[in-house]
């Protein structure tokens, strides 16, 4: 069967369905009392705003924030209105609202079409979140050195061609993805699978397939979703491929656990083992565990690879900061070696990464929620059940009253001592720093992400000179709605430093 024409036909039906049904739906949502930006709020022509949003999300967010800062505004996205909650007081209320009222899992369900991709087990029993939260917060124990080992090995592989003393051109996003995938899976499952090219390729394509499905599901009306699901990239084939890689390992571990129970003293200390031990009932099967491993990768890889890519772009585009970073890393490593305690002392590296997250404008909005019940904010704004909400992370980052000189890239912004004599760390969340969310659902993997990104940046400044393909120019990112991806083609130049120029 030819799927292409059928898919187009379905999408046309979908579009027609929206044109006819959505404006009335919008009005049913009783959101008329909330001011609109980005386009008209009248039926049918509100679609103009929804299409504009695809290409001008940042400007629309900015416009709403400038007009209604401290309050609440809305704009049209394809399929629904998006309500944005601004100002420290309301954002704090927003993050404190219980899951049963402003639901993060319902937003996730819709965002990645869970019903048709990974299944609802992810939200009915999100035990992986608890595992990540409890196991990845501290110093990672002995795994710290394994992760560092994998980072060094993968950087050596990726930057190998620079070893002859010449500058080598490296596609940064591809390199960041590879390093993050190998380092993460060294902790998730260990050697040798973390280096298996097909396993790494699977994790990358799986994320791409889910994202592709999610984009289509977002604009597909409920009644067409089961049909559309059959025409999209087959997520279950990706799961089958994961099963082929992991089945022998998981089956063996399940057997060992059954036979030895607590007497299994030399059990592996990795994510897969933690997941196996935390899984209950139906979740403790090979396929369900494979889905969980793929889901953890889905949450961990793209986010970290994007942030790391942007950090490397900034490093190369602002070469004046390489020297101070290098001094800090060399001093710390001399005193503490490559340890978690040492990494904690790298305040400039930490601040550099946090400032890139702020200044790079990658994030327009975070903390997507769907209201399951009616809710009224303290300013009197009524939010009916069914409303899609978010916080304006991007406009806050660009707000001069929150971040003085916001348009400037100031890499030491967060390492300079605050009033309390404290540094603000990369992993700290607050109402003005929402890249990892804030509150009960704040990213539980951010401590691990921070360790990986700091290790990579520190290793690179210590061992390589870098420059941008076009001096001082940060490659343009691609934006569609809330999604922002760094240039996947942009290359950076790396040159290995000679041993005597290193401390
Ligand atoms: C720079 C890297 C990362 C960024 C920017 C990031 C960002 C985020 C954001 C914005 C959220 C949603 C917060 C909310 O809705 O309130 C989130 C949730 C989550 N992240 Fe991350 N993340 C990163 C790395 C990771 C890593 C490495 C892992 C896993 C090891 C991970 C696992 C998760 C999980 C499981 C959730 C869902 C938490 C929940 O539902 O309670 N993330 N992340």
Oligomer: single chain
Please tell me what the overall shape is: globular
Strand pairing plus helix content: what structural class?
alpha+beta
Q: Which blocks of ≥5 consecutive residues have pLDDT under 50?
A: none
Count of helices? 18
Strand line-up of the largest beta sheet: 1-2-8-5-3
Bound molecules: protoporphyrin IX containing FE
Strand content: 5-15%
Q: Report Rg.
A: 23 Å
**Element-by-element helix/strand order:** HHEEHEHHHHEHHHHHHHHHEEEEHHEEEE
Largest sheet: 5 strands, mixed
Average pLDDT over all residues: 88
Q: What is the terminal-to-terminal distance?
A: 64 Å
Q: How many DSSP-defined strands?
A: 12
Residue share in helix: 40-55%
Describe what you observe in this structure.
The protein contains 18 helices and twelve strands. It is of the alpha+beta class and 503 residues long. The strands form four sheets. It has a five-stranded mixed sheet with strand order 1-2-8-5-3. The longest helix is centred in the middle third of the chain and has 32 residues, at 286-317. The chain is globular, with a radius of gyration of 23 Å. It binds protoporphyrin IX containing FE. The chain crosses the membrane at residues 6-27, 289-316. Its cofactor is heme. Pfam families: p450. Belongs to the cytochrome P450 family.
Can you lay out the helices and strands and say which pair or pack?
Layout: H1 3-28, H2 46-68, E1 72-77, E2 80-85, H3 88-96, E3 102-103, H4 104-111, H5 121-124, H6 127-135, H7 143-158, E4 168-171, H8 172-188, H9 197-218, H10 225-231, H11 235-260, H12 271-278, H13 286-317, H14 322-336, H15 340-345, H16 347-359, E5 366-371, E6 375-376, E7 382-383, E8 388-391, H17 393-397, H18 446-463, E9 464-468, E10 478-480, E11 483-485, E12 491-496
Parallel strand pairs: 2-8
Antiparallel strand pairs: 1-2, 3-5, 4-12, 5-8, 6-7, 9-12, 10-11
Helix pairs in contact: 6-12, 7-8, 7-18, 8-13, 9-11, 9-13, 11-13, 13-16, 13-18, 14-18
The chain binds protoporphyrin IX containing FE (HEM).
Protoporphyrin IX containing FE binds next to helix 6, helix 13, strand 5 and helix 18.
């Amino acid at each position: 069967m030819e799927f292409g024409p059928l898919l187009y036909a379905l999408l046309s039906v979908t579009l027609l369905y929206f044109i006819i049904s959505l404006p009335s739906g919008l009005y049913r949502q009783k959101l008329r009392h909330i001011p609109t930006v980005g386009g008209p709020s009248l039926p049918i022509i509100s679609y103009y705003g929804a299409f504009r949003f695809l290409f001008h999300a940042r400007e629309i967010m900015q416009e709403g924030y400038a007009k209604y800062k401290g309050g609440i505004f809305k704009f049209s996205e394809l399929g629904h209105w998006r309500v944005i909650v601004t100002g420290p007081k309301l954002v704090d209320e927003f993050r404190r609202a219980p899951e049963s009222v402003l639901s993060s899992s319902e937003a996730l369900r819709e965002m990645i079409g869970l019903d048709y991709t990974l299944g609802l087990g992810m939200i009915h029993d999100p035990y992986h979140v608890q595992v990540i939260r409890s196991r990845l917060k501290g110093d990672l124990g002995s795994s710290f050195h394994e992760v560092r080992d994998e980072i060094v090995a993968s950087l050596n592989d990726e930057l190998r061609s620079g070893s002859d003393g010449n500058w080598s051109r490296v596609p940064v996003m591809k390199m960041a993805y590879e390093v993050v995938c190998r380092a993460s899976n060294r902790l998730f499952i260990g050697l040798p699978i973390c280096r298996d090219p097909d396993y790494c390729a699977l994790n990358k394509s799986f994320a791409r397939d889910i994202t592709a499905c999610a984009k289509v599901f977002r604009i597909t009306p409920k009644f067409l979703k089961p049909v559309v699901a059959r025409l999209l990239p087959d997520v279950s084939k990706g799961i089958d491929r994961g099963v082929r890689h992991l089945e022998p390992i998981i089956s063996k571990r399940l057997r060992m656990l059954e036979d030895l129970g607590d007497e299994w003293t030399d059990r592996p200390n990795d994510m897969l083992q933690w997941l196996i031990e935390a899984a209950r009932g139906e979740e403790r099967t090979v396929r369900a565990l494979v889905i969980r491993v793929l889901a953890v990768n889905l949450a961990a890889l793209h986010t970290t690879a994007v942030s790391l890519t942007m950090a490397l772009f900034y490093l190369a585009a602002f070469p004046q900061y390489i020297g101070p970073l290098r001094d800090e890393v060399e001093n710390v490593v001399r005193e503490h070696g490559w340890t978690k305690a040492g990494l904690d002392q790298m305040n400039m590296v930490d601040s550099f990464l946090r400032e890139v997250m702020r200044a790079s404008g990658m994030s327009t909005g975070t903390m997507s929620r769907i209201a399951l019940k009616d809710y009224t904010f303290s300013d009197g704004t009524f939010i009916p059940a069914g409303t899609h909400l978010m916080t304006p992370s991007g406009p806050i980052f660009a707000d001069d009253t929150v971040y003085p000189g916001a348009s400037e890239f100031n890499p030491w912004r967060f390492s300079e001592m605050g009033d309390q004599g404290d540094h603000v760390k990369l992993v700290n969340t607050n109402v003005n720093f929402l890249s990892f969310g804030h509150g009960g659902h704040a990213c539980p993997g951010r401590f691990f992400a921070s360790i990986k990104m700091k290790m990579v940046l520190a290793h690179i400044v210590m061992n390589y000179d870098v420059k941008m393909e076009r001096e001082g120019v940060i490659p343009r990112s691609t934006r569609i709605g809330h999604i922002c991806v760094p240039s996947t083609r942009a290359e950076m130049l790396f040159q290995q430093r000679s041993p005597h120029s290193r401390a």
